[in-house]
Amino acid sequence: MINQETIQRIMDATRIEEVIGDFVSLKKRGANHIGCCPFHNEKTPSFYVSPSKGIFKCFGCGKAGNAVGFLMDHEHYTYPEALRWLAQKYNIEIEEEKMSDEQRERQSVRDALFHVSEFAQKYFAELMWEDEMGRAVGLSYFHERGLTDKVIKDFGLGYCLDKWTDFTDHARKNGYSDEVLEKTGLSIFKEDGKVFDRFKGRVMFPIYSISGRVLGFSGRVMSKEKQVAKYVNSPDSEIYNKSNILYGLFQAKNAISRANKCYLVEGNVDVVSMHQSDVCNTVASCGTSLTVEQIRLIKRYTQNITVVYDGDSAGIKAALRAFNLLFEEGMHAHAVLFPDEEDPDSYAQKYGSTQLQEYLAGHEMNFVEFKMATSGIPDIGAIDPIRKSNLIKEYTDSLALIQDPNEQSGYITLIASALRVNENDLRRTLAQTIAAHKRQAWKEEQRELAREEAAAEQAIAEQAMVEQTTGEYPETAPLPDGYTTPPQVLADLRPAEAQERRIASLLVKNGSRMVKMQLVDQEGKEFTQEVRVADIVTAELTADNLGFDNPTYKEIFDLYTHAVGDGRPLPDANYFAVHPDTVLRNTALEMMMSTYGLSPQWEEKKTIAVPNPDDNLNVELEETILAYKKKKLEQRMADKQYELRQCKDPDEQMIIMAQYNELKQLQQQAGQSLHQVVS
């Protein structure tokens, strides 16, 4: 357990922009920092970090929270683990307690997957360095590949003994369940009861998250059996998805940022060898073809990527596919071809790190150069016109994916020269290709819309059948007790909810701020007093008892009402950042987060006075409350009118009329001013 005093010291020391900056490339914009969201795929940044409030908010997917919440969501840490990570970052001492077997069993399955993966990595590394067989097979293999002890330890490499259940037995003795071992894929359990280690007799490459947590493994076989797969990777699990992970990114991320470039290679050993040769900005896809998700991981640190694949037909085909994916994601792509039967690892072993670096720098090719070099055409002037036409189509299909017009134009000039075709003709062909892509995208969008409309029509038809058979009307939102919503006033719900949102936003952003109000005491004398916004809003809305239709906005209002009534501190950014209700947390933090700020040019001109939206808080306060009351009263009065038309009982009609007249009086009062009486 971590005591509250230590937690407070951790939170006081934490700078959220530094924490998130370890995982996301952020740029300062006014008072905030902005970057591409790590929680969903986006091309235009909508992820904001507010240093002053200590919170983040993505306006694309809705994710929000503080530094602890970010680590829990992004790195899958538990709350204590996130605090420990922050404590280590800011050199705050925490006394660790070793988990007992009972405590370990209480861990959730997801947490247990992380723990057993880290446990396995340490065990495999320990075997390789301390066990006789581990040194003879595992360590000698890495030494034969030219790897030093330092780089072997930096990447946490290890060895799984060539025994059927060595690791499984060791993990069981240390309290890990068969369920956890099976879910990580470290152990395989057959239906006939047989058990064996997945990575038996393999050297081990642990695969880390961006923050350095062990997620899974890649194991290379040491035996010469042809029927055995050369490499085996961990299966996908709750913590490991090979399509979303890059081998070596944890070790390479800082170097990628510094160099503003990333090398993408094919194999794990290539990554380790490149790091040993001081080309530390190198990663590899984890046993899968390059994915969009992996590209977006790299894009957090740089938009420049150089593909370094094998020079065989499979490697060339993979590199050309990678170019298209990279172009589509707005990356600047290049490629390097090694001589036949060479790769970064073998080249470094033969010629050393200096020559490897020189080769990479001297043989980097852009898309056009790479395609020409691998097309197998000795003389472009002698090729068949049909072949040339096909080449042009291949080029323009790829260029149409490039987002930067200037980059497109530069490539057009290169292609025209390389293929000896008219540049203007090539530009027209590219324009036609882009138009064709847009038409295809539009058609796909229309098909998707048609599918959605068909589904909506089906739902409406099914609801109509319910109405015909039961006489019940659908409700689009939860309503306060005692209210039913007829079809003709359903349309009024959304405008009313818009006013509810304004009230909730006013409380969240400005609830603790003071405003000057002209008030009247019980004797009728006017006086001026500073009052908190939350006190005014809760008093005004509670007095009229109009309620909220949206449950999230109602909960926010109730939180402030109870805090005011009980004399407790008002909810703030830290309160909402750790709130267990995800919808409420994201909604409140979005309201708090201002996405507006002064540009650097304006900030430099100190003499220019810029109006602050908060200067008109008094006006905003009054307008927001009055607009809320007006819209809510209109909705309630429409409800009563409908009830009156449907009611057949004269006594019940009189009650409804009285309720309607009461609402009408409130409407007239709301049109005049705020209640200004202090008891």
Description:
- Helix 17 runs antiparallel to helix 18 (405-419).
- With 679 residues, the chain is α+β, with helices and mostly antiparallel strands.
- The protein has a six-stranded mixed beta sheet, with helices on both faces.
- It is built from 27 helices and 19 strands.
- The model is unreliable at 470-493, 606-611 and 674-679 (pLDDT under 50).
- Helices cover 54% and strands 12% of the residues.
Short key terms for the protein model shown above:
single chain; 679 residues; alpha+beta; 6-stranded mixed sheet; 5-stranded antiparallel sheet; 19 strands; 12% strand; globular; disordered C terminus
Number of helices: 27
Cα shape: globular
Low-confidence stretches: 470-493, 606-611, 674-679
Structural class: alpha+beta
Cα end-to-end separation: 47 Å
What order do the strands of the largest sheet run in, or round the barrel if closed? 12-14-13-15-16-17
* Estimated share of beta-strand residues: 5-15%
Tell how many strands the DSSP assignment holds. 19
Mean pLDDT: 82
Can you summarize the main beta sheet? 6 strands, mixed
Helix content: 40-55%
> Cα-atom Rg, whole angstroms?
32 Å
